[in-house]
Amino acid sequence: MLNSLDLPKSPADTRVVVAMSGGVDSSVVAAMLKEEGYDVVGITLQLYDAGEVATRTRSCCAGQDIYDARRVSEAIGIPHYVLDYEDRFREAVIDPFTESYLAGETPVPCVSCNQTVKFRDLLATARDLKADALATGHYIDSRSLGGGRRGLFRPTDLDRDQSYFLYATTQEQIDFLRFPLGRLTKPETRALAARYDLAVADKPDSQDICFVAKGKYSDIIEKLRPGAGEAGDIVHVDGRHLGRHDGILHFTIGQRRGIGVALGEPLYVVAIDAQRREVIVGPREALATRRIRLRSVNWLGEEPVEAAAKAEREIFVKVRSTRPPAPASLTLGNDGQLVVSLLEGEDGVAPGQACVFYDGEGAGSRVLGGGVIAGTEPLLSFAEPAKIAASAR
């Protein structure tokens, strides 16, 4: 007989480490498993110096959140530990985020965090504690595929779907992880928090990047890399020189406001050439992308990814966490690099972001992996300077 976590033990004989961020979701997971009789251990990671965000209600993994996780653990009667992962977090997440941004990319640090300090380092700690599983409060479903393997699937509550940030989870990690909220909605989770009388039942959800105090990435980068904001040119896709800027770190693909130049028509950031320190702008239609080149691919399908690409396997992909999956196909470029061909095109696809694969578009669709966007191919052709800038991205 299997228990509710698909493990062949009674709950009392099953040790589960719960990654507790101090928010309502992970707190409910800990309370649920404790109520079911599991041997629950709560662990909270201190990932960065809280500083001015110590008491922010929409952050995580620092300051007030650590205190909240401790309070919940005491209330439900489980041991709780705080692990100082600041150095690991800086090396594995903050530093790569900074370098990627300075290279003109738009990185997704939450993917790196899950891939490294949470699902690599914390998972290793859970194994050291003789745990049978590591549970988190992510909204993603996990099911048995047979043969001891598990798969990841989009959750019941698609408004809370966090599969975009978890595509890089390896098969070994997936087999050890459990996501008890995968088949619950957020209102149901909050109702459980109220029933358990948790102090965090009404706590707002964390938003934006945890280590960015006020949503200004440039402030963090300038603090970590003083003098990184080197001035450069703002160039139109047709080759016209439009003005100067104070550093490419102040721009992202698809940006419209705050560009600093005006032509009497809406302008968008179309590409960023870090080597030339150029910001290339143009009309909205210049943002349309047809093909995406990927690097650092994590494939979770049954057949090898090369076989899937050679067969031009039809899939669905997300190129932003807030967009629904769109139809696409996997192919191989002339250089053997994995390429995603978008059937309908997408606007504002930026290098550094994630492209996540699914076998469908609705709740319950399986996550087939994904990769980091290395470059894009525009739908429309413009002047040669624009092509050079696009290829540089």
Automatic annotation (TrEMBL):
The record marks 138, 353 as: Interaction with tRNA. CDD domains: MnmA_TRMU-like. The active site is at residues 113, 210. Keywords: ATP-binding, Cytoplasm, Disulfide bond, Methyltransferase, Nucleotide-binding, RNA-binding, Transferase, tRNA processing, tRNA-binding. The keyword ATP-binding applies. It is found in: Cytoplasm. Residues 290-373 form the tRNA-specific 2-thiouridylase MnmA-like C-terminal domain. InterPro entries: MnmA-like (IPR004506), MnmA-like_C (IPR046885), MnmA-like_central (IPR046884), MnmA-like_central_sf (IPR023382), Rossmann-like_a/b/a_fold (IPR014729). Residues 160-162 are annotated as: Interaction with tRNA. Catalyzes the 2-thiolation of uridine at the wobble position (U34) of tRNA, leading to the formation of s(2)U34. Belongs to the MnmA/TRMU family. This is tRNA-specific 2-thiouridylase MnmA. It comes from Consotaella salsifontis. The gene is mnmA.
